[in-house]
Structure formats: C-alpha cells, structure tokens
Design a protein that fits this description.
alpha/beta; Rossmann fold; Hypothetical protein af1432; 2 domains; 5 strands; about 5% strand
Length: about 350
C-alpha cells in the first residue's frame, strides 16, 4: 500500500529546455505538496541528475537542443537496463508517429502543452504511484529471495551436520578412526578437483565421502570387530554394508545426501565388474564411486589396523598402479599418483598422532 506521504516525498526530475515550463511545473507541484523536485534546462545534465536523485518520475520534453528527449530516453534505458523508469513526455506534438516512437523509447504517458493543472497533477501522481508500487514489489521480492537463500544455506548446513554425525556413528562401530574419515574425504576432494569437477561438486563430495561405510552400522560386532581373517560366510555378511548404507541414504531430494548414497553404494565396485554389491563395470560405476574407491583403499592400506601394520606409502601407490583397469579406473589412478606430495601433506596433517 502506497501512502500519501510516500507520494508527496517522491523524487521528481524535470528536463525541459524552456525555463518557463519548468517554473510552471515546479509551482504546480509545490502547491500540491511535492517537496523533492529537481530540474534542468540542459538535457546533457539529465543522466547525471538521474544518477544523483534516483527519481520516481521523469518529466521529459522531446524537442530540445544538444540531446533531444529520445536521446535522453536511450541514456536512461541503458542506465536502468532491468528496471522501470516512469517517463512522462511533455509535448505539444500530436503526430501519432512521434507518440509511437516515444512509447517504443520508454515513455509511459504524455502530458500535452499547455499544461492543465488538474490533468498534470493526476498524470504525475498516477505514474509516481505505479513506480512506488513497482519498487515495493521489487524490494519484497529481494527480501523473499534473501530469506530463501538464508533458509537454503541453513538447510544445507543441517544436511552437512547430519552427514557428519552419521559418519561419526559409523566410526563407533568400526576399527576405523575419525582421521581416516577426514583423510579419505580430503583425498576425494583433491581427486575430484584434478578430474575437473566443479567447486560445488568438490565440496559436496568432501561432505558426502564420510558416509562411504555408514552401512557398517548394520554389521554384527562379531564380524565387524573380528581381529582375524573373516570366513567366506562372514565376508558375505560384511559385503552387505554397501547395500545397508545405500538403503539408509536412499530416497532423499537433497543432492548432498543423494551423492552420499551413491558413494556408499558404489565405492566397492571394481572396474572389471568383479566388485560388489551390483558388479558394475567400467564407466557404469559413477565417477564419485570410482574416486572414493581409490582414496579409501589407499588410506586403508597406509593406516594401522588391529589386524595389520600400515603399508609404506610407496607400497600402497604400487598396489594402486597394479590395480589399474581391473580394480580401479586407470586414469584416476594416474591423476592420484601425480598428486603424491599433496597426498602426503594431507596424511601428515591428519595423522593418527
């Protein structure tokens, strides 16, 4: 709702090379209570005055030296490319072609000379009210957009927190440590960057990767925590953690949780189709699953476990290279190996010590 005070406080710009016309319009506006009126007889000043005062209406003559009204409208149209400039044309011209050209140039209405006080006030007031309503709508839309952006950010932060907490829940059931989760996630982000994923996708994988083994929550402790080698029957049970994790994360509309679902379900697939749980082969395995497979195996090999000593980094790298094109995507292995200095830095930053 636009109030009377808002209308009377609106900014008015008059551009007319005839000083008498400006004086007449100023007098009329002052009598009607308008207090924020600016004017010039030099059309070359119109753009600067518009920038300085952000008028709610421009009263514009067409026939002027230096820059005519059409030229001023072109300047304003370029200045406010995606806005709304309420231009009221001051003219004694009755030619339909001139009116059509003015409307195409951005004119919203016409005020014919000599000015009738009642008509002048009504047309000015109507255009000001339209502009104030437009600005009110724009401001409301901007506030709504800001609120939606804030809520979206809050929702993403909540999703990331849930992912993080679920990852910690899986750690309580497993021999793997929190630092394994951190290292593996950082390595995934690094490899995602090198393979050319967008920054947003890199960050999403950084948050999703900790969920790769969340399905181990559903594996019995007698198998999950067994210090020795698993029997074939126990190994089959252990393999179900990929499907359990996928089930836990399935059906979400969140891109983050959907990526976590993909990682959990596919990080044990193998390039040659002998992996689990679905025996996917080659590029049928989602890229994030192929990335997670390399990073998970590397960190598992180089980490101490109750049932094994950590492998030296060079031995773990050699194992990845041996696994090219059977266990792993060979191109990803090459990219991973090329980043060995950064990989070692990440391991040192998040060492078990």
């Amino acid at each position: 709702m636009i109030t009377e005070d808002q209308i009377l406080q609106a900014s008015v710009l008059i551009v007319d090379d005839q000083a008498v016309n400006i004086q007449l319009l100023r007098l009329l506006l002052r009598e009607r209570g308008f207090i924020n009126v600016h004017s010039t007889t030099d059309s070359r000043q119109a753009l600067d005055l518009y920038r300085a005062h952000s008028p709610d209406i421009v009263l514009l003559d067409l026939q002027m030296p230096n820059i005519d009204g059409f030229g001023v409208m072109a300047q304003l149209r370029q200045e406010v490319a995606h806005g709304y400039v309420p231009i009221l044309i001051l003219t004694g011209e009755r030619d339909p072609e001139v009116r059509r050209r003015a409307l195409q140039g951005g004119a919203r209405d016409f005020l014919h000379k000599p000015f009738d006080p009642v008509e002048t006030h009504s047309r000015i007031r109507n255009l000001i009210e339209m502009h104030l309503l437009f600005m009110q709508t724009q401001n409301h839309a901007a506030r709504l957009e800001s609120e939606v952006e804030a809520r979206t950010h809050e929702l993403r932060a909540t999703q990331a927190e849930i992912i993080h907490r679920l990852g910690h829940a899986a750690e309580y059931k497993d021999n793997e440590t929190g630092n394994h989760i951190k290292r593996m996630s950082m390595l995934c982000r690094l490899l995602a960057e090198r393979v050319g994923l967008s920054h947003a996708e890199q960050q999403m994988l950084l948050l999703a990767a900790p969920m790769h083994d969340v399905g181990k929550i559903g594996i019995p402790d007698r198998i999950l925590l067994k210090p020795g080698r698993l029997t074939p029957e126990e190994w089959l049970v252990m393999q179900t953690h990929a499907e359990i994790g996928a089930d836990l994360l399935a059906g979400s509309h969140s891109p983050l949780i959907d990526m976590a679902h993909t990682v959990a379900w596919t990080h044990h697939e193998r390039w040659d189709g002998t992996g689990y749980p679905r025996k996917l082969k080659g590029e049928d395995i989602p890229l994030v699953g192929r990335i997670a497979a390399i990073c998970d195996v590397f960190d598992a090999l180089t980490s101490a476990r109750p049932y094994k000593e950590p492998w030296p980094v060079e031995d773990a790298i050699a194992e990845l290279v041996r696994g090219k094109w059977n266990h792993f995507d060979g191109n990803l292995v090459d990219l991973f190996v090329a980043e060995l200095p950064e990989i070692i830095r990440i391991r040192e930053q998040f060492s078990e010590d």
